[in-house]
Amino acid sequence: MNQVEHTAAKIAEYLLEINAVKLNPEHPFTWTSGWKSPIYSDNRMSLSHPVVRNYIKQQLGLLIKQHFAGAEAIIGVATAGIAPGALVADELSLPFGYVRSEAKKHGMGKQVEGDIPSTKKVVVVEDLVSTGKSSLQAVQTLREYGCEVLGMVSIFTYGFDAAKQAFEQANCTYYSLSNYNSLIEVAIQKNIIAADQLGLLSEWRKSPESWGK
Known about the structure:
globular; Rossmann fold; six-stranded mixed beta sheet; 7 helices; two-stranded antiparallel sheet
């Protein structure tokens, strides 16, 4: 197991231990999109666990140093990407700001919050990437604002093909600390799910929009 795989497995193990990720293939969850899913992820749970929070912060920092050494600021995606973004900005001693889903309808009417000049080279931080739609909307907002977006990092990704294609089309480089495959491997090792449920879990990721209907 190389370092990338080790980190992915460790993050997956932590997320399962603190119940930030729940797996229930027999009784699926319903996402806000209406999709049925055997998995539910709430990485904000990690903020309440200092050991997990610090490990995520450190690993995001290393990921950004390795792939985006020229970063001049860190930008979180509202709302769930704000906390990990602020933590890693502190880890790297870089300015921090965040992107709203839409501009405020009062005050200064800002969509990019913080003292972030439009000339900055930035890295975007998300907690979770599913389809990539909201993440890439944030990237587009920053580009229109004038920033050079070096890329994006996240704590976890489902690894949907549609998301991979969307990031490629948007010409946005993307890395995640952990992913669905690593999570399932750890869950099987820890007997959280049975090996005979693997097929069902694999089928969901192939076509999540129609699974369970």
